[in-house]
Amino acid sequence: MNQAAKRLAHIADHILAPMSAPSSSRAAKVAVLGASGGIGQPLSMLLKTSPRVGELSLYDVANTPGVAADLGHINTGSSIKGYVGPDQLPEALQGCDLVVIPAGIPRKPGMTRDDLFNINASIVAGLCQAVATHCPQAWVAIISNPVNSTVPIAAEVMKRAGAYDPKKLFGVTTLDVVRAEKFISEINKVDPKDVSVPVIGGHAGITIVPLLSQSQPPLKLSEDELAKLTSRIQNAGTEVVEAKQGAGSATLSMAYAAARFADACLRAQAGEDVVEYAFVQSSVLPNVPFLASKLRLGSQGTVQELGLGPLSSAEQRNIDAMTPELLGSIKKGIEFVEKQGVEAANK
Ligand SMILES: NC(=O)C1=CN([C@@H]2O[C@H](COP(=O)(O)OP(=O)(O)OC[C@H]3O[C@@H](n4cnc5c(N)ncnc54)[C@H](O)[C@@H]3O)[C@@H](O)[C@H]2O)C=CC1
Ligand SMILES: O=C([O-])CC(=O)C(=O)O
Predict the structure, then answer these.
(1) Residue of minimum CA distance from atom 6 in ligand 2
(2) Residue 9 predicted with pLDDT over 70
(3) pLDDT at residue 11 greater than cutoff 80
(4) Nearest one of 201, 129, 123 to 161, comparing CA atoms
(5) Its pTM surpasses 0.90
(6) Is 325 exposed, middle or buried (0-12, 13-18, 19+ CB in 10 A)?
(7) Same domain as 101, residue 135
(8) Of 289, 293, 251, which Cα lies nearest the Cα of 275?
(9) What is its EC number (predicted)?
(10) Catalytic status, residue 203
(11) CATH no. for residue 187?
């Protein structure tokens, strides 16, 4: 079974099919910040069915008691509690092993992810300040867009609070991999669980770089067809934004992808050797301080960046073409914290 198949078998076995918690490890406390939202609710539901979660902490600025009461009737072992508003955030975070952050506004048609910066930057900065204070040991998985900027913001805020561990901070890019696996499975007419394909770079437009030459099973497509498939993967988020006609962006597929990523984190925390993609502080490309790529995860976080593998000339061109935009988004995030300071960002 290849890596992708193993990961999906894990989701099927451990997340989607309720069963007893593994006896070898303590079930984790997981917080979802933004738990009442379009992603937060279905993600919380998937986490409620995970045997690796012992305690589920649902935080938002509204509606979490209702969401928690509803999910609390699902007959799995985990306990669940809803927390509302900044006064309740410390208790929501206390003792967390993993904090997943889908808080913030989504796109409407015609917007880029960067158009969300002005609102979401402050939300992520404020929440990460609280994580640094109340659960500095936790792994943090950021979903809120623009990921290419919100992860550097989180890093900078946590650095200033003396609580930054680059091995434990992740931007969630799993949906790009999930989409690439699905689209390739349709072209090759195979089960998606038998597809594996790297998607590296960042999480916006051209910064999303699928490495289709490394697809397994291999793709037999012309240069033109490969370019079209690359573009579809890069613009898949916009495909959903347009189909939803102003009602938001991907929520259900994102919840599925985030549950896959959370499962990878919890398995790694429990001592499994896990391979997954995420946007992290990186040394894979010279002078690119954050990058999504293939990671080996262990009990203390990222153990190793596994590199990009052999690239086709088109893939190398795509990486060269996206690097200035990615660097600009990273710089914008860092400068946001430098200019405004965390206190101002929290207002
Ligand atoms: N990384 C990725 O691949 C993806 C990222 N996203 C991003 O995820 C974010 C959330 O999307 P949706 O769930 O669709 O939005 P939504 O608007 O449905 O939900 C967002 C939730 O965040 C809450 N919130 C706002 N400020 C908060 C704060 N300070 N503390 C806690 N909660 C707060 C809101 O009350 C709301 O319940 C967006 O920024 C979106 O662009 C969406 C899809 C994929
Ligand atoms: O497109 C958006 O705004 C939401 C997102 O990040 C995605 O679906 O990949």
Answers:
(1) 237
(2) no
(3) no
(4) 129
(5) yes
(6) middle
(7) yes
(8) 293
(9) 1.1.1.37
(10) yes
(11) 3.90.110.10
